[in-house]
Design a protein that fits this description.
The complex is a heterodimer of chains A (262) and B (272).
Chain A: E1 2-11, E2 14-24, E3 29-33, H1 40-47, E4 55-60, H2 65-71, E5 76-79, H3 93-97, H4 113-125, H5 141-154, E6 159-163, H6 171-188, E7 191-195, E8 208-213, E9 215-220, H7 227-235, E10 239-242, E11 254-257
Parallel strand pairs in A: 3-7, 3-8, 5-6, 6-7
Antiparallel strand pairs in A: 1-2, 1-4, 8-9, 10-11
Chain B: H1 2-41, H2 47-64, H3 71-91, H4 95-116, H5 124-129, H6 140-156, H7 158-166, H8 168-173, H9 178-200, H10 207-219, H11 223-248, H12 252-271
Helix pairs in contact in B: 1-6, 1-9, 1-10, 1-11, 2-3, 2-4, 2-9, 3-4, 3-9, 6-9, 10-11, 10-12, 11-12
The chains are: A alpha/beta (262), B mainly alpha (272).
Chain lengths: 262, 272
């Protein structure tokens, strides 16, 4: 479904990404992890066609992502980082879920019944339908993220690209979001690519983990990764990986930063 | 008999001036209220100040060349706004800093040019603070045209502009030509500001770009309500300001802005 080959991006003579290559199959749930400045957001922006790599190619179903943008066919649902979304706008939850419906003279029109019902359905899926008439600036950070997820799903895309969807989401809803995304992959064959700093619980839900720090250090199923070694390679030697219990099948519950203690 | 005819004629002429000024003010205030929503939401409220002051250079150049039409300030404003947009998009500068540079350059250029035009007797105060007598009926036809064009642009692309304001990346992946719309937005804004300068003045015109949405936000929580209240308060401020300035004998631009400010205070009290 998605094939990236030898992706390199250079900006101001600095390599942001170097020789990154991966395949993502239809219906797969992939998590991209890595430290700040590792190039995670840059990589997903290349995947959705917002950035062009200096070198290398990326194809979705054999077509370059820019073609999807030109066709406006809603194949890709995108959740940008929470910090770059304008949450101060006087919009209701419903307005946000329907914000990607672009039509001329929309200011003077009402939403159709079908659109409202579809928006409410996705709000229900992400457990936020009870706030449908609330204003987005009155929501908590976690609620805003769930509204964004419903917005991403409104056009029922084939690919979901999520840049830190669990920012400001509490632990309970974090798990609920992962469960919902897992179901979307299993039941609707939707491909999910998710950037996250959660290197703990996420491993229980995804098919593959991509460990990125400019270069791609691994791209395999969570159970096949040697976390101690891999995370030290990606995050550096100053962290102490805390792995709890053998039954957990390598899942990680904490990464302690030991930089201040050395 | 002769005196009363002259008086009646003067009253008729004044009434015509007041009606023209009100009509022109309203035709400009409505699209500016729409744009005000995007300007405030994108936190680029300094834009109006920059563009309006950019017109000063054009007006001064017009005086020097003996042409007082709106062409010179219009070209100056549009070029300045595109320059601001280009430097922001491609140069990596903040919008405010680029606006500031254009603002001071244009004012300095205008003063420099005016000093070269010996015997200049133009109404500088009228330029800076508005002059109702300079708004004649010849102005109405181009203003109606501008009103229709700008309203078409705003209403046709409203959902696109709304999405860009919410998140530019999201707009891009939905196929919106963000940069093109951005430049068009600046051009429409420039044209509206140039045509409001005669009534409101360079210094005060930014009120029409900031206060509608600020009043709207105090009264309504929904974007349609915010824009609607902004339009209503703009219309009342223009009409009320023009009539009040006639009876109290005060400068029209200042009176309109003071009335608008009073609206904002009232809306703030309503909010709390």
């Amino acid at each position: 479904m998605i094939r990236a080959q030898n992706i390199t991006l250079v900006r101001n003579n600095k390599k942001i990404l170097e020789d990154v290559g991966f395949d993502v199959k239809k219906g797969e749930f992939v998590a991209i992890i890595g430290p700040n400045g590792a190039g995670k957001t840059t990589l997903v922006k290349i995947v959705i066609g917002l950035l062009k790599p200096t070198d290398g190619t990326i194809k979705i179903n054999g077509v370059e992502p820019e073609e999807f943008i030109k066709k406006r066919n809603g194949v890709i649902g995108y959740l940008p980082q929470k910090a770059i979304v304008n949450w101060s706008m006087p919009l209701k939850v419903l307005d946000v879920v329907l914000i990607e419906k672009l039509s001329p003279f929309s200011f003077f029109r009402k939403y159709s019944k079908e659109d409202v019902e579809r928006a409410e359905y996705w709000l229900e899926v992400f457990g936020i339908k009870n706030r449908v008439n609330a204003y987005i600036r009155d929501l908590s950070g976690g609620e805003q993220q769930r509204v964004s997820l419903a917005r991403c799903m409104f056009n029922e895309p084939e690919i979901l690209v999520l840049d830190e969807p669990n920012t400001a989401v509490d632990a309970v809803y974090n798990v609920k979001i992962y469960e919902t995304l897992r179901k979307l992959c299993d039941n609707r064959d939707i491909t999910v690519i998710m950037v996250t700093h959660d290197i703990g619980a996420v491993t229980m839900y995804v098919d593959k983990v991509m460990c990125l720090n400019i270069k791609l250090h691994c791209h395999s199923s969570p159970s096949a990764i040697n976390y101690s070694e891999m995370l030290k390679r990606v995050y550096g030697n100053n962290i102490n990986i805390v792995i709890h219990g053998e039954k957990c099948n390598n899942c990680i519950f904490g990464v302690r930063d030991d930089r201040n203690t050395h | 008999m002769g005196k009363s005819v002259i008086t009646a004629f003067l009253v008729l002429e004044m009434t015509e001036i007041l009606i023209n000024a009100t009509l022109i003010g309203i035709l400009i205030a409505i699209p500016l209220s729409f744009l005000s929503y995007f300007v405030v939401m994108r936190k680029m409220t300094f834009a109006g100040v920059g563009i309006a002051h950019a017109s000063f250079g054009g007006i001064a150049l017009g005086f020097l060349l003996g042409c007082e039409s709106f062409i010179f300030p219009l070209v100056f404003c549009v070029v300045s706004s595109l320059f601001i947009g280009f430097l922001y998009k491609k140069g990596g500068f903040s919008e405010d800093s680029v606006i500031d540079v254009v603002f001071v350059f244009s004012m300095a250029f205008g003063i420099f040019i005016l000093s070269l035009s010996n015997g200049y007797s133009g109404n500088v105060l009228g330029l800076l603070f508005g002059d109702i007598l300079s708004v004649n009926k010849d102005y109405i036809v181009p203003v109606i045209g501008i009103f229709l064009l700008s309203m078409f642009f705003i209403s046709y692309f409203f959902s696109h502009l709304n999405l860009i304001t919410y998140n530019e990346d999201l707009a891009r992946i939905n196929g919106v030509r963000v940069d093109l719309l951005y430049y068009f937005f600046w051009i429409v804004l420039s044209v509206l500001i140039v045509f409001s300068i005669r009534l409101i003045g360079i210094v005060l015109v930014n009120a029409f770009l900031v206060l509608p949405t600020l009043v709207g936000l105090n009264v309504s929580k929904n974007f349609k309500g915010v824009i609607g209240v902004g339009i209503l308060s703009s219309i009342i401020s223009v009409a009320g300001g023009v009539i009040l300035s006639y009876y109290v004998n005060t400068p029209t631009g200042a009176t309109i802005v003071l009335l608008f400010f009073a609206f904002w205070i009232l809306s703030f009290i309503f909010k709390i």
